[in-house]
Amino acid sequence: MEGLGKGNAEIIGIFLNNHLLEPVGEKHAWYVDEEEWTNFVKRISELCKDTSYLEKQAEDAYRICGKIKDITAKIRATDFQNKSNERLKDLLNEYHKSLYKYSFVAWGMLVIDQLLVGKVAEKLQTALKNRNKGEKFNEYFETLTTKVNLTDAEREEIELLNIKAEAQKRGDDIERLLKEHADKYGWLPMYDHDIVPWDKEYFRNRIISLSENPQKEIAQREEKLNKRRGRIEEILHELNDPELSRLVNLLQKYIILRTYRTDILKIAYYNMNLFFKEIENRMGLEGNEVAYTTIDEIFNFLTNGKVISKEIIKERMEHFLFLKIDEKLEIVANKDRIDNVLKNQLDRLELSDVLKGSGVYTGIKQGGVKIIESVKDEYKMHEGDILVATMTTPEMHSIIEKAGAIVTDEGGITCHAAVVAREFKIPCVIGTKYATKVLKDGDLVEVNAKEGIVRRLKI
Q1: Does the residue 124 lie in any domain?
Q2: What is the pLDDT along the chain (459 residues), one digit of tens a residue?
Q3: Dihedral, CA atoms, 52, 122, 108, 17, nearest 10 degrees?
Q4: Are 359 and 312 found together in one domain?
Q5: Residue 20: inside a domain, yes or no?
Q6: The pTM is what?
Q7: What kind and span of H or E run contains 388?
Q8: Hey, how many other C-beta atoms are within 10 angstroms of the C-beta on 150?
Q9: Domain count, the chain
Q10: How far apart, in whole angstroms, are the C-alpha atoms of residue 409 and residue 432?
Q11: Which of 136, 270, 362, 415 is most buried, by the most CB atoms less than 10 A from its CB?
Q12: β-bridge mates for residue 429, sequence order
């Protein structure tokens, strides 16, 4: 949370001092002060008028993420048992510092990619108008903003398909391949320190659900990707506008960066898993209780040997939220107080049978709602259901394949839901803000992606 204030200020001169974090399932809902956010967006908008700034921020974001990955990988490879508390404190401090500027990568990208999409749209309109092809805008815009590079989650699926192909050749002798795969991709579900990473057995079970013709599946995926890349090249060659080409190539980089920035945090949690287990053991805690301590409390233990009481930890494990007002950070764990804080700090939710957002991949679809918090909810998703989520994530691939339409609380045109909606040609409405709170499993809804409206239907 410190990075939201000082980390952002160091990069763009704007503080986000007031915010609230609330656990929701295996993820978190994060709220910021509306006025501070408006100023944050305004400042980034001013800076992003220069395309060179956008290019520099992409480079900086990859550098910041790479540093986090390298530092946490080094810590993961450390033998902690022979290290003193003082040395563990040094390692923790190194980890903490690596995350300092990450907040701008996390939050700034949400603003930057939308501004970049606007630049692409504006430049495309001008280029088409100059060639009397204005009617091509929707077709070309949808193509140019469709992802053409693989995320780590997509690479994982392709590599697992390759392992299945190997299994078909040599029987069940794939133990080493599964172990290496788990070591490489076990971090994918880890949205926090207390999430269990995927192991060899998880991937062994996953293989069963994959295509029985893995090589054909891989070839089909590669063909679709190459077709998309080829079509973008054709459009850019046809319009022959160097600035448009520059913006589209940059947008493709940001589309991947939007996913990569969250992947890096998951990799960091995975790499730090053994470190925090060692801390947990030294503190006399168990059952992942260390995940409910703060970094200051861990520093205090490593410095002074002071351990937070188990009663406080148990209370936090049941319910908690982080509240930061004017630089003062507080952990609220009392249920009545949490309800009171949420009531006083957040805008009241107006329940309605109509939700409005931004439509992606035009179409209208009716179906039953399934609220999806994580891949653990796949069991309740059936063909044609309406997938409703705070946001979709790469590891939800098999769930998305069943969806008749997608509705999300968050997101812009380059968010994961928007990207996969265009790839799978699924009607999608993003950025409704409250879909997961207003709708419930089994509700019959109509998703109108052309109008950006989700309407609850009367039965």
Answers
A1: yes
A2: 555 556 666 677 777 788 888 887 667 778 888 888 889 889 999 999 999 999 999 999 999 999 999 999 999 999 998 899 999 999 999 999 998 888 888 888 888 988 999 999 999 999 999 999 999 998 999 899 999 999 999 999 999 999 999 988 877 678 999 999 999 999 999 988 888 899 999 999 999 888 899 999 999 999 999 999 999 999 999 999 999 999 999 999 999 998 999 999 999 999 999 999 999 999 999 988 999 999 999 999 999 999 999 999 999 998 899 888 887 888 899 888 888 888 777 665 556 788 999 998 889 999 999 999 888 888 899 999 999 998 888 888 889 999 999 999 988 877 888 888 988 889 999 999 889 888 999 999 999 999 999 999 876
A3: 120
A4: no
A5: yes
A6: 0.84
A7: strand 386-389
A8: 16
A9: 2
A10: 5
A11: 415
A12: 359, 407
Terminal C-alpha separation, the chain? 45
258 and 407 part of one domain: no
Joined together, the tokens standing for residue 448 give 């109108």
Amino acid residing at 44: I
Kindly state whether residues 278 and 419 are assigned to the same domain: no
| 192 in any annotated domain | no
Residue 195 lies inside a defined structural domain of this protein:
no
**Lookup: tokens for 289:** 């209780």
Q: What angle do CA 232, 51, 102 make, to 5 degrees?
A: 100
C-alpha Rg value of the chain to the nearest Å: 23
Looking at the fold, whether 302 and 393 belong to one and the same domain comes out as no
Q: Which domain holds residue 378?
A: 354-456
Residues 28 and 136 in one domain: yes
